[in-house]
């Protein structure tokens, strides 16, 4: 166990119960996220990546349940927190970005309003101050002419820009941990590279820790320090990125590597 870990996931088990049947979506997952580092969680569709992150954030939907294990964030067990305490943690210390920015942004609010609200919730800023900070944030995530974009609606932006706005909202609270669940899967390859570069840059400036969830080993190679390979709800391999590429141990990892272009 690393003493620099900001998040420690220990033997996490999450199941879905339907008609008395138990589906083990996450089946004994253990990993650490070290301060300022990026861990990649890679695995095919259905391997339990998203359910792992939703379990960490306490955002499982019915009938999903954590049935065992521990999730320690800065040494405190998140499974013992009340819903209100978890909301506070999600708003202030752990942020998340998802695959499809159109479904996570509110289509009826301007971009500026959505980022401003994130600022206002966390910092009690005036409207004017929140707007100013939102423009700065749009600049930070590389949106051109932010003074103009801030008054636009999500549909007026490209997919890449919407994902940048999502990142801006996620970062407005200066999280210590960012969970990025397939953040670039829905984007063109060039935009994908730009967004990954942006996450790396911001991680460096803000000193954030990141969990990068993806089915794409190329993304992992690009961004991560350590990698957990998931298969059938379990971590079948967990290693520093260079070791994984040099010496993959599990047949599934070998298969993944062979499928790289
Ligand atoms: P990934 O993100 O790796 O594609 P998920 O974590 O979303 O996979 O899902 C892992 C497994 O959890 C799925 O294969 C499925 O068996 C189960 N699962 C997810 N959501 C539900 C649900 N709402 N009801 C029942 N089983 C579910
Ligand atoms: Mg997923």
From TrEMBL:
It is found in: Cell membrane. It is a peripheral membrane protein. Residues 7-257 form the ABC transporter domain. GO terms for biological process: peptide transport. Its main location: membrane. Keywords: ATP-binding, Cell membrane, Membrane, Nucleotide-binding, Transport. It comes from the Bacteria. GO terms for molecular function: ATP binding; ATP hydrolysis activity. GO terms for cellular component: plasma membrane. Belongs to the ABC transporter superfamily. This is Oligopeptide transport ATP-binding protein AppD.
